Automatic annotation (TrEMBL):
Coiled coil: none
Record keywords, A-Z: Membrane, Transmembrane, Transmembrane helix
Highest taxon above the source species: Bacteria
Protein name as annotated: CGNR zinc finger domain-containing protein
Cross-referenced Gene3D superfamilies: Jann2411-like domain
Alphabetized SUPFAM superfamilies for the sequence: Jann2411-like
Organism: Streptomyces atriruber
Transmembrane segments: 105-123
Membrane is among the record's keywords: yes
One Pfam family cited in the UniProt record for this chain: zf-CGNR
Length: 172
């Protein structure tokens, strides 16, 4: 996985992991591989624990409604992940930037990837483009990468559900 200028893949991976928390190190490794991450070290239980902590911190970013609060929470993650950016061409994947030390365990790698990816997404696309679904009983998180930046629902299914409900409320 390369961090594109908008951090899209990284922020989508964070949402995917937060919405369905991985239950084991093996599952975490499989899902990261499926998302295009190159794993250079075996994935162990510590990686899973670190990932759960990362997702807890990240969900606070999602649930922060005021922009300065949201920025402060992302900045705290960036400060903790701090490493100088470097060019790398590991795994024959072409030259790209890493914002972390080389050969980190997956837990640390994910923390830095999610912190930097989220910062790039919010700065590049808009501070408001990270939220939970507008349907009250749906807690699904999504990064809004739409053209207009006005996505309110996690899925078409939830959009339809809310439309039906608003229609019923009007005719009742
Ligand atoms: Zn890389
Ligand atoms: Zn939803």
């Amino acid at each position: 996985m390369h961090l594109n200028p908008y951090g899209e893949d990284a922020v989508n991976l964070a949402a995917e992991l937060a919405n369905h928390r991985p239950r084991g190190a093996e599952e975490l490794a499989d899902r990261c591989r499926a998302a295009g991450l190159t794993l250079e070290r075996p994935v162990v239980r510590d990686d899973l624990l670190r990932t759960q902590e990362t997702l807890d911190a990240w969900e606070k970013v999602v649930d922060a409604t005021a922009e300065p609060e949201r920025a402060a929470l992302v900045n705290a993650m960036l400060a903790e992940a701090a490493a100088y950016p470097r060019l790398t061409d590991h795994a024959d994947s072409g030259w790209h930037l890493h914002y972390r030390e080389e050969r980190q365990p997956l837990g640390a790698l994910l923390f830095s990837l999610i912190a930097v990816g989220t910062a790039l997404h919010l700065a590049g696309r808009g501070m408001h483009r990270l939220r939970r679904c507008a349907v009250t009983e749906c807690v699904t998180i999504f990064a809004d990468t739409s053209r207009t930046g006005r996505q309110r629902y996690c899925s078409q299914r939830c959009a339809n559900r809310d439309a039906v409900r608003r229609h019923r409320a009007r005719v009742a």
